[in-house]
């Protein structure tokens, strides 16, 4: 056999071995990140949110959530500056607004804004539930330390199909290596002029078994930074506190 044929055979064998080694490694990483998410949902006791209802008050506005095997309804009830009762009711199809029981005409732009606002409160309240949705792409970043404690860091992006209008947002989550509680999260968003946020979970408590958390909401002074470095800025106390996310009057059914 010629030296050239020996060379081709060697290249083929190396490529085959590399391919065989990389595939199990990729599958192992996928399995690892899936296990982290599943254990966190279990720790938070949110596995039944596909067939559950709850209510809460956030910044003096009342929210309700009902989900029956994928058919959902979210509501937001508030009193506006004129004293009128405004109810936004969102389901799988659309969002409808009523003011003192009358449904006014609203533009598509306003409907989209109301939908984002209602969905945002419910989405963050339910975390880490939702991280197993089909449109979610989960990537294991690695182990890291925040304030001297060890965490699994997971990056989440979204497929365009099924990912909603905010599919190009990027999220980071930090899960306690011991109990898998979701203690921190960060996100890069592009709607409403865009920005970057970092949230620290506070006030953990159980309501009907489910772990409920509030958050301190931070941002970097320069929101053009690489979001992958935001936990380092938090460790160095270089984030600016914006607000507190306090969930009150929580009832889980």
From TrEMBL:
Keyword vocabulary terms for this entry: Signal
Signal peptide interval: 1-16
Source domain of life: Bacteria
Entries under Pfam families matching the protein: DUF6503 (PF20113)
Protein name (record): Deoxyribose-phosphate aldolase
Natural source organism: Roseivirga misakiensis
């Amino acid at each position: 056999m010629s030296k050239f044929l020996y060379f081709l055979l060697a290249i083929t064998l190396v490529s085959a071995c590399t391919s065989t080694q990389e595939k199990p490694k990729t599958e192992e990483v996928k399995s690892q990140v899936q296990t982290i998410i599943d254990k966190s949902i279990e720790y938070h006791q949110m596995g039944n949110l596909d067939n559950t209802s709850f209510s809460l008050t956030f910044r003096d506005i009342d929210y309700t959530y009902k989900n029956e095997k994928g058919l959902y309804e979210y509501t937001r009830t508030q009193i506006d500056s004129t004293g009128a009762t405004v109810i936004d009711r969102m389901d799988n199809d659309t969002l409808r607004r009523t003011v003192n029981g009358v449904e006014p005409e609203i533009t598509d732009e306003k409907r989209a804004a109301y939908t984002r606002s209602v969905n945002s409160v419910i989405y963050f309240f339910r975390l880490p539930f939702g991280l197993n949705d089909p449109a979610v792409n989960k990537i294991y970043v690695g182990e890291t330390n925040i304030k001297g404690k060890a965490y699994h860091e997971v990056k989440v992006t979204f497929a365009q199909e099924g990912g909603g209008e905010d599919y190009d947002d990027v999220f980071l989550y930090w899960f306690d290596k011991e109990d898998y509680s979701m203690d921190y999260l960060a996100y890069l968003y592009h709607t409403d002029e865009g920005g970057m946020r970092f949230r620290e979970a506070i006030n953990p408590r159980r309501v009907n078994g489910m772990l409920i958390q509030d958050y301190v909401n931070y941002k970097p002074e320069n929101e053009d930074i690489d979001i992958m470095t935001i936990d380092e800025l938090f460790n160095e106390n270089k984030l600016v506190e914006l607000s507190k996310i306090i969930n009150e009057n929580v009832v889980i059914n």
